[in-house]
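tool=predict chain=A
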Amino acid sequence: MIAIATAIGSGFILGAATVVGLIVIAACAIWKDIR
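tool=predict ok
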C-alpha cells in the first residue's frame, strides 16, 4: 500500500516537473521570439 502510494506520488511529482519544464522552455522560446 505504501509502495503504491509512493509510486503514484513520485510519478505525480515527475509529471508536474516535466510539465513545468516544458512551460519554462516554451516561455523562453516565446520570449525570445517577442524580443
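The chain is about 95% helix and 0% strand. The two ends are 51 Å apart (CA to CA).
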